[in-house]
Amino acid sequence: MKFWQMVNWIEVDQLIPLAQFAEELGFEGVMNSDHAVYPKTVLAEYPYSPDGKAMMSPDWPYPDAWVTIAAMAAVTKRLKFSTSIYVLPLRNVFEVAKATGTLALMSDNRFILGAGLGWMKDEFDIYGVEFKTRARRTDEMIDVLRKLWEGGMVEHHGDFYDFPPLQIAPEPTQTVPVFLGGSSAPALKRAATRGDGWIGAGNTPEEVPALMAEFTRLREEAGRAHLPFETLIGLSTPPDLDTFKRLHDQGMTAGISYPFFFSLGLHSSLDDKKRVMEQFAKAFIRPFENA
């Protein structure tokens, strides 16, 4: 099993040394997070808490996802990078294609677009982007992105995007993998039929086998069972080696070391974060390396 480290909500000046340390410890990759803006008052319900209230607040740091990944990629050689989760339908598809294609090219294909629909309607309202059509728009955006990543002249005529032959150069040497988030039935189907992987938002170990079976079923129905598919799942229970081994045998490909906020609070020193990462690597990464 592979393991990823979340690096969201941390002090910006710690991102580069933590990426370097993650590579040194053997983490597969690191994931940052995304919100374009964070309004003072949020009316939308947060889907991942029992009371519908998000734990985040406007002063929690969300540095630009692409800039921070570029900076971390520049000082590492093996480490992979993903967003968890980039609010894709909020953005301009051409700007996303150019930024992500460039990231893939300059990082030697170590970048993965981790994308989702977004939950905060307030953010869409501020941007002037329709919220209720975001699912269908995301589906079409993925199609458009893959066309643009191919290079050369491409055109598209769809419900949300309609453009004549055009080109974004330089193109990446490989298409950018797309990992999708979301826990609803349509979200799981989207990941299985359009994505190269799925990023969970927190699941119990008991939920994982059914998720793996559902992805297998959906991918077989879509004729995609032969293609690689990653499952990056953060468990909502304390990390346990036997649990990781059991879930790995059942098809889960990667575990997640949670944001430092949960173990150290919103603000902590670089040394404290390194200590947490080192403990995680010793307890979970090393046993899989030595198996």
TrEMBL record:
Where is the Luciferase-like domain positioned along the sequence?
12-230
Superkingdom field: Bacteria
MF terms (GO), sorted A to Z: oxidoreductase activity, acting on paired donors, with incorporation or reduction of molecular oxygen
Tell me which stretches of the chain form a coiled coil.
none
Note the NCBIfam families from the entry: F420_Rv2161c
How is this protein named in the record? Answer: Putative oxidoreductase
